# Entry
Amino acid sequence: MTIVFGGMAASLDGYIRSVSGDLSWLNDAMSKAEDYGFAATEQRTGAYVMGANTYREVAGMGVGGSSVPTYVVTHDETLATPKNTLLFSGDLAVLVARLKASLPAEKDICVYGGGQLVTGFIDAGLLDELGVAVIPVILGGGVPFFGSIARWTRLELAECRPYPSGIVLLNYRLRLGAA
# Structure
């Protein structure tokens, strides 16, 4: 059965981007000798859904044009995209239903940043799993991991994996409802 999972990296104090927008804190923490689950994510993903800001950041690094369909959630109809990348501005539940109907059962939907998009998926009850890479840095401010969440969402820890670099991966299953 196709599941919807999200993944983000955050500083220890819960920010996904520094006040200045600099991401060197993230790149400096990562070790080339550590995979952080990237290979497994690529293998299981049948479609990516990402926010426009994350898409611009990824495209600016020269990454893009994947053979895996990518949907960029945006209202900017002028955003340039390569083949296999589509713009979407509508009800996230409609997008998820469409993707689930089109993907093989063994492939999943990866929600890849940013904080507003992940928050929207959680609020809509559309996210089944959430992975957080905690980066060993304290930024003191910036763009928070989550926006304002409409209701409590209980998380069940599925995995906790520390790396020699100090990065810790936390993978959770989401359960809706108040504690």
About this structure: The beta strands are 4-11, 15-17, 45-51, 70-73, 85-88, 108-112, 129-135, 143-144, 153-162, 168-176.
